[in-house]
Amino acid sequence: MDMRFTPDELAFRDEVRAFLKAELDPGLARKVRLHDELTKAEMEGWHAKLQARGWLAGNWPTEFGGAGWTPIQRHIFEEESARAHAPRIVPFGIAMLGPVLQKFGSKEQQDHWLPRILNGDDWWCQGYSEPGAGSDLAGLRCAAVRQGDHYVVTGQKTWTTLGQHANMIFCLVRTSTEGKKQEGISFLLIDMDSPGVTVRPIVLLDGTAEVNEVWFDEVRVPVANLVGEENQGWTYAKYLLTHERTNIAGVGFATAALDNLQRVARAQVHRGQPLSQDPLFAAQLAEVEIELMAMSTTNLRMLSQAAQGQAPGIESSMLKIKGTQIRQRLDALTRRAYGGQASALPTLGNEGPDGADEALSATATWLNNRKLSIYGGSNEIQRSIIAGALAKG
Amino acid sequence: MDFQLSDDHRMLQDSLRGILTRHTGEALWPALVEAGVPAALLTEDEGGFDGSGAAIALIFQELGRAGVALPLIPAMIAAAAFAQAGQPAEDGAALAFADAEPGTRHDRGVAISVQGDRLTGRKTMVAGAEGAAAILVTTADALWRLAPDAPGVTIRPYPMLDGQRGADLILEDAPATRLGAIADFGGPLARGVLAHSALALGAITAAVDLTLDYLKQRKQFGQPLIAFQALAHRMADLAVEVEQARSAVTNLSGHLDAEPALRDRHVQACKVTVGRVARLVAEDAVQLHGGIGMTEEYALGGMIRRLLAAETAMGDADWHLERFARGEPAFA
Ligand SMILES: Cc1cc2nc3c(=O)[nH]c(=O)nc-3n(C[C@H](O)[C@H](O)[C@H](O)COP(=O)(O)OP(=O)(O)OC[C@H]3O[C@@H](n4cnc5c(N)ncnc54)[C@H](O)[C@@H]3O)c2cc1C
């Protein structure tokens, strides 16, 4: 066993650091650190810089224009990016749809859509959830009826993250009501500029509107936009979910949050000393740091298994649970470090207390990050997956 | 022992519930005044007619349950403190309480300093500072009365988490009247903690009730969510914790007039217990709801934000836990 990064990996880390230092605008990094809502242009700008370096699609094989990184390289890139407060790569095109098209899409679909993801021509969003189908995703009702060369789609999707910026949405739609409910689902690519598509923002507790409701009213979608086979969408969705769940541990984000909390604890005064010196607070801080140390290694152990070709099983569910618990705990501690100052919310109005935007962002972040344990398969669903696997032995 | 409400308090509760269902927005405050709610928060000596722990706990629980955001707590604390110092405020005047400071969790006197009878520095999250007739201000070890229109006073308002207007108070050599040492005002400050805790308890109950209703009604996998044992047990755990919070509030309301050392242990125990439960309920209620619980449109959100605000007011659970463990007074 060797727990050190190899010389190649270390060299790669230095490259990533140098890139971030040269290319990441400090104003943008500050916005990311304070969890401010980024504009579409800011996100696209960062994608373009990464693409220019060949690093936008670390998870894609080189034959499709990706970087072809090993899982360890991806981990290094994600951790360094998070610690430098770089915008996170919007996952829908790169991390989710890309791998599905590469595995199940037709040659035409690959040739058309994959380059457009890389060069920023399309902004994708994910249309899975519906008001009645959340954890029970297979209960979805949004229907696609074949009429000649088109599917006619009618129904509603919800919680589509950043759908307000998107021109394309990949959807799970019901193409059959016979047999098991998982068996009548298809995977369809829909142009959001089509007649009959309506998008309405949903405002969240922190005042941001990063999610949307999307309605389809007899929207005509060319049959060419069906991925794989009709009624086989569930298979592709499951494949996509395992991809959605890589980097689910969020070690980089947790490390960045820990760095931030340590900085706050040094600056806050408690009994005439930095709060970081307070035994009670220091113990709480140490506890979550220790949790993170172990989780980080759990993550690396599982990554190196994946690098040896073992498919992630319940490991990704474990990482999801532990990773989100640690991040939510860090958010809670950050609010506690700020004490009474954590009682204003900048995004609800235009102004906050002068010079106190850091304290304000603590509560906004706490509120927004409740999503971590809800989306991508809630923590309860992950526990059922783990328990189910354990029971089977 | 008797934990039942007295007849008077039961009547107060009934009329309050009636008002809170009938009136909202601008119409609420006059209706509360007409029903005598502000006066019920103060003793006769302070210019009110009840002022008992039981009345304070009852009133703020109802307000918390109904989700009312009014700067009633700071006004009550300030009125009681002014009265104790022999400086009653004019009847019905709006009063504010400036306690929290930037740069510290809950210590006092970190961002504000005293020179003679003049104050310089900053207070933050001051609810109702705009338009207040007088502001009660804490410094390291004293309480002060400040006129908002005095020279050197700047008020910078912004919206707060619980829907109220708060403000930063920026003081540059601002003249103020010293009311006395903080340690001598344990009574008025303890009522403030009781009020914040009862308000939180009201919001806790409302959030837990709403969550339970939702779990009964929301179906996934062909069953109501409450049918899943993992969720049913979470609800059961929450119910257990709510009773702990209720008892902590009862303890403090029954010991408001106890000798200071005992009263302060209940102040601290109440803040620790209610703070812990508030945090747990805020986290679990959102989680059990799933995505809908995170939306501004749904009723839970306001409750969660008020819970978070009440949790940090006048010292959070950590701060009071430390003082309890060290055997220190709650306010010094
Ligand atoms: C901020 C945010 C962004 C999102 N982005 C997207 C997106 O881009 N695209 C998209 O398609 N979806 C997205 N989602 C949707 C997300 O995947 C769902 O919210 C999630 O699947 C949970 O579904 P639900 O909200 O309907 O909750 P429900 O399924 O109603 O669950 C409510 C609660 O019950 C629990 N529960 C449900 N069933 C069980 C069970 N059998 N056993 C035990 N517990 C159970 C859940 O864990 C949860 O705690 C997003 C959600 C959020 C909050």
UniProtKB/TrEMBL annotation, chain A:
Domain Acyl-CoA dehydrogenase/oxidase N-terminal: 6-121
Record-level GO cellular component terms: plasma membrane
Domain of life: Bacteria
Domain Acyl-CoA dehydrogenase/oxidase C-terminal residues, every copy: 231-389
SUPFAM superfamilies: Acyl-CoA dehydrogenase C-terminal domain-like, Acyl-CoA dehydrogenase NM domain-like
GO molecular function: flavin adenine dinucleotide binding; oxidoreductase activity, acting on the CH-CH group of donors
Ranges where the Acyl-CoA oxidase/dehydrogenase middle domain occurs: 125-216
Protein name, UniProt field: Pimeloyl-CoA dehydrogenase large subunit
Species, as recorded: Paracoccus liaowanqingii
TrEMBL record, chain B:
Cofactor requirement: FAD
Keywords attached to this entry: FAD, Flavoprotein, Oxidoreductase
PANTHER family, A to Z: ACYL-COA DEHYDROGENASE (PTHR43884), ACYL-COA DEHYDROGENASE FADE28 (PTHR43884:SF20)
This protein's record includes keyword Flavoprotein: yes
Keyword check for Oxidoreductase: yes
GO MF annotation terms: acyl-CoA dehydrogenase activity; flavin adenine dinucleotide binding
InterPro entries (alphabetical): Acyl-CoA_Oxase/DH_mid-dom_sf (IPR046373), AcylCo_DH-like_C (IPR036250), AcylCo_DH/oxidase_C (IPR009075), AcylCoA_DH/ox_N_sf (IPR037069), AcylCoA_DH/oxidase_NM_dom_sf (IPR009100)
Gene3D superfamilies assigned: Acyl-CoA dehydrogenase/oxidase, N-terminal domain, Butyryl-CoA Dehydrogenase, subunit A, domain 2, Butyryl-CoA Dehydrogenase, subunit A, domain 3
Name of the molecule in the record: Pimeloyl-CoA dehydrogenase small subunit
